[in-house]
Amino acid sequence: MDKAPWISYRPEIKVLDCTIRDGGLINNHCFDDRLIRAVYEANVAAGIDYMELGYKADKKIFAPGKFGEWKFCDEDTVRRVVDDNPTDLKLSFMADAERTDYHHDILPADQSVFDQVRVATYIHQIPTAIDMIKDAADKGYEVSANLMALSTVQDRELAEALELFCQTDVKTIVIVDSFGTFYSEQIQDYAKRYLKAVEGTDKQIGIHAHNNLQLAFANTIEAIICGVNRLDATFNGIGRGAGNCPLELLLSFLRNPKFHLRPILECIQKEFIPLRGEIEWGYIIPYMITAHFNRHPRSAIQLRDSKTPDDYVTFYDQVAGMED
After folding, report:
1. Same domain as 133, residue 84
2. Domain match, 79 and 173 both
3. What is the pLDDT of residues 267-317, one digit of tens each?
4. Do residue 232 and residue 257 come from a single domain?
5. Are 65 and 21 members of one domain?
6. For residue 67, is it within any domain?
7. N or C end of the chain: smaller count of CB under 10 Å?
8. Other CB atoms closer than 10 Å to residue 66's CB: what's the count?
């Protein structure tokens, strides 16, 4: 008789909550301290492994007056909410290649409340990303590499990028479905390629899925089945555009007794249901259309902010007519 592996769990799996970082892309990172503290406390109570609080954006590129404090994650700002983080929850921020003054703004880890740096890069920025990974590792951080817009990367370029990442001290390399365009078969293929690249090392593979086709949760499960052990998710699926894999669904699936679902549900009920009346996220047809054509969702976001947010047919024709 075949076994039923779905009734057990894989203890090496770790979960990263990117609610505040990815959700901040909706409102220019203008969450108030109360909400962030609520998410932090819920993550601690739920046994989540990592919490990503925002970006370390270069203030010479992004004017602080136009963005909230979580675009920059200054140490004083973070400590105002989490103090010295006397918990097992590891804190993380994202550093975008060519948009982060990493030599200056990222302090040595022993002077920071953060534990992890997530270096985000497009394929043409790989040399900068490699230097950022070295800088963060030398400063004592755990480091991950997030290669964005994966659906636009050629196979030869991906092979070279993975080889270069494997030569660094990066601990996790993340499969990033930036445009929410992948199906399960593609996730299988990428997972196999990423896992093959890190064979014989102590590096882990992660998954960051967007929900344009309502497949973020399903694709995360597919990655788990393939052996991916680092999982991104958000409260109530909040995130840029169509949002992300919902954390509540993921915890329910994982069955690991270290994770506790109730604190997440309580925080969603108190904080994120009311927030839906202020900002929009989640599956909506324009995001499906951009995913269908393998496009960045920025045009769908613009449509939702226009006077004709539900003119799907005109939008479809416009996206279909865009030049590559």
Report:
1. yes
2. yes
3. 999 999 999 999 999 999 999 999 999 999 999 999 999 999 999 999 999
4. yes
5. yes
6. yes
7. N
8. 8
DSSP 156-171: HHHHHHHHHHHTS--S
pLDDT digits (tens, 9 = 90+) for 261-279: 999 999 999 999 999 999 9
Beta-ladder partners of 91: 51
Give which of 217, 162, 172 is closest to 193, Cα–Cα: 162
Same domain, 179 and 246: yes
For residue 222, give the nearest of 185, 174, 177, 173 by alpha carbon.
185
Can you list the alpha helix ranges (DSSP code H) found in 178-255? 184-197, 216-226, 247-254
319, two tokens: 């996206």
- In whole angstroms, give the CA distance from residue 235 to residue 126: 31
Does the residue 1 lie in any domain? no
Helix axes 155-166, 126-138, angle to 10 degrees: 20
Q: Which domain holds residue 292?
A: 285-320
Instruction: Specify if 5 maps to a domain.
Output: no
The set of residues, in sequence order, having a beta carbon less than 8 Å from that of 12 and lying 6+ positions away, is 229
Q: pTM of the entire structure?
A: 0.96
On whether both 251 and 154 belong to a single domain, the answer is yes
Q: How many domains does the structure of the chain reveal?
A: 2
Task: Please list, in sequence order, all residues whose beta carbon lies within 8 angstroms of the beta carbon of residue 83, skipping any fewer than 6 positions away.
Answer: none
Structure tokens at 283: 């599956």
Query: Are 175 and 86 in a shared domain?
Result: yes
Say how far residue 301 (Cα) sits from the centre of its chain: 18
How far is Cα 16 from Cα 106, in angstroms, rounded to an integer?
20
Question: pLDDT tens across 20-51, in order?
Answer: 999 999 999 999 999 999 999 999 999 999 99
Distance, in Å, from the CA atom of 226 to the CA atom of 220, rounded to the nearest integer, reads 10
> Do residues 220 and 77 share a domain?
yes
